[in-house]
Amino acid sequence: MSDQPLVLGIETSCDETGVGIVRGHTLLADAVASSVDEHARFGGVVPEVASRAHLEAMVPTIERACDTAGVRLADVDAIAVTSGPGLVGALLVGVASAKALAIGLDKPLYGVNHLASHVAVDQLEHGPLPEPCLAMLVSGGHSSLLLVEDVTQGVEPLGATIDDAAGEAFDKVARLLGLPFPGGPHIDREARSGSSVAIDFPRGLTSGRDLQRHRFDFSFSGLKTAVARWVEAREAAGEPVPVADVAASFQEAVCDVLTRKAVDAAVANGVEDLLIGGGVAANSRLRVLAEERAARHGVRVRVPRPALCTDNGAMVAALGAEMVSRGRTPSALDIPADSSLPITEVLA
Amino acid sequence: MLLALDTSTPLVSVALHDDGRVVHAATSEQPMKHGEQLAPMIAAALDAVGAVRQDVTAVAAGVGPGPFTGLRVGLVTARTLGLALGIPVYGACSLDVLAVRAVDSGVEGPFLATIDARRKELFWASYDEEGRRLDGPHVDRPTELPELPVVGAGPVLYPDVLSRGTGPQTPDAATLALAVAEERVELLDPEPIYLRRPDATVPGPPKKVS
Ligand SMILES: [Zn+2]
Questions:
Q1: A235 touches chain B (CB under 8 A)
Q2: Which residue range forms the structural domain that includes residue B110?
Q3: Which of A238, A262, A334, B197 fits a disulfide with A136 by CB distance 3.0 to 4.6 angstroms?
Q4: A1 has pLDDT over 70
Q5: Record: contact A55-B202, CB cut-off 8 A
Q6: Where does the chain bind substrate (chain A) (predicted)?
Q7: Domain span at residue A91?
């Protein structure tokens, strides 16, 4: 197998059925079928609805990825799949499908960590990963700071959210403001016409004492409650809620904490590259603020394009290709789907 | 060679059928581990008969009804294998397979075939003396079933309510393979029979925090 392996990656940890195909660091196809519309009216992802959708979408999405990439399944060198963390019933559909491909094509299987895949995907956009690098992953399911020495076997968690994920806070505040699910893009758009300093919302875990114990951890639950109180007080007083100002001030509070801690973590670890991934990485303010702050400390920022930041199969294929190139041992056919797979386990 | 699998019960069942007979059959040892056990069992089945993946010319899968998570593992495996090998994938109602197994083991109809549906309910269907489905599949409480002899999980789980028969307790892949090869069951698309909607509630307005 060459150092440009052709790898098919499957991602089903949440509500996106993703199948990606890469050749080394080159993206050939990134097919995604999303069940997000089916979850919208429930205000969040319903696991059973997601699992049913994965089963229906799996084979058509594999076929679509092959068509787009212009390859036959038989040409693939290896299969990679998200084996965790995520919704267990959803993960199981992808893992079982990947195992069937491994048997049916007689190719090696790599069960990989979803979070490490969010890091590896950047190679498809910006070439080889700077290692070590500091990765900040922010989405509806995760908010983590990771020190990446080797994306295929050495990822160290520095901090994570102690309550809600960043994207979850966006969803909940969007709901308070009567904006649709998922909330991220809607808050971002509203915020553009609002003032980020209109309301001084709290910055979680940034006070002196909190910083001692939780220097690189996040908390967004208190912020969410503060926004709710502020909106309720307005409503109780019979005054209109300035949606754009609330959105902008809330978004500023989230992005302020995220970027402050990410840059602090990079500097503290002597790392010169900060990589941001996950759905919230698509937030326009987060990107700008990160670049401003990082530049002041001589840290470079890498953010993959939005389509690669949200959950997709290409990121799994990207990490799989790296596993092949760096000669890692393939996974056994009996690997489980592990809903709470720790980031220290990059390969199952 | 036909590869048959059923994941509609807590156990995984895999069989290979060739030249008019079942040449291999295996049942998993651990319950509730479909995701871990199915793929190695398929690989082991091929090894056991000295076959390679290209020898498989069709896949048959039990489509339930059964607990959803395991059922999906079986069906996505069958569908993806079909895609990878370029071979057809057939489905059969797992209750129908259980009924065929019951008739073959001497159970006389009419009778009910049952699979555990959890939440104190059973998936069930009724069958005539030749194992042809009369009614169902449905999902109901054991006390709501028609008064007929019962095979499957029902009498094991609810011995106080349902009379214990002498028939088989589960559908299995060997019977599925035979029944498909001998056209004794209706062939279906490899679509799961759920019989229940997903648990999900549309949320009310946001809760007040103050
Ligand atoms: Zn993710």
A1: no
A2: 95-157
A3: A262
A4: no
A5: no
A6: 137-141, 171, 184, 188, 283
A7: 6-121+312-325
| Residue A138, marked binder | yes
The helix-helix angle for B68-85 and A88-105 (nearest 10°) equals 30
Same domain (yes/no): A295, A316: no
> Does B208 score more than 70 pLDDT?
no
Those residues whose C-beta lies under 8 Å from the C-beta of residue A207, and which sit 6 or more positions away, are: none
One domain for residues A36 and A88: yes
CB of A158 closer than 8 Å to CB of A145? yes
Which of residues B71 and A37 earns the better pLDDT score?
B71
Q: Is A297 annotated as a binding residue?
A: no
Task: Return the pLDDT at B205.
Answer: 61
**Pairing, β A300-302 against β A273-277:** parallel
Same-domain check for residues B60 and B89: yes
The CA distance from B97 to B173, in Å, is: 9
The ipTM (two decimal places) reads 0.95
pLDDT band at A41 (very low <50, low <70, confident <90, very high): confident
Q: Does residue B122 share a domain with residue B69? A: no
A37 among the known binding-site residues? no
Interface test with B, best of A10, A97, A179, A234 (most B CBs within 10 A): A97
Q: Is residue A32 classed as helix, strand or coil in its secondary structure? A: strand
**Which residues are CB-contacts of A262 (< 8 A; sequence separation ≥ 6)?**
A134, A136, A145, A274, A276, A290
Q: Which of A199, A188, A189, A287 is nearest to A249 (CA)?
A: A199
B145 shares its domain with B53: no
**Residues A282 and A144 grouped into a single domain:** yes
**How far apart are the C-alpha atoms of B46 and B59, rounded to whole Å?**
13
Q: Model-level pTM?
A: 0.94
DSSP secondary structure string for all residues of chain B: -EEEEE-SSSS-EEEEEETTEEEEEEE-SSTT-HHHHHHHHHHHHHHHTT--GGG--EEEEE--SS-HHHHHHHHHHHHHHHHHHT--EEEE-HHHHHHHHHHHTTPPSSEEEEEE-STT-EEEEEE-TTS-EEEEEEEE-GGGS-SS-EEEHHHHH-TTTS-B-SS-SS--HHHHHHHHHTT-S--B-S-----S--------SPPP--
Domain count, chain A: 2
What does the mean pLDDT of chain A come to?
95
Closest residue in chain B to residue A57, using alpha carbons only: B76
Contacts with A177 from chain B: Cβ below 8 Å: none
* Most B CBs within 10 Å, among A19, A103, A331, to test the B interface: A103
**Is there a domain that residue B135 lies in?**
yes
| The token pair that represents A157 in the structure block | 């968690």
Residues A107 and A142 reside in one and the same domain: no
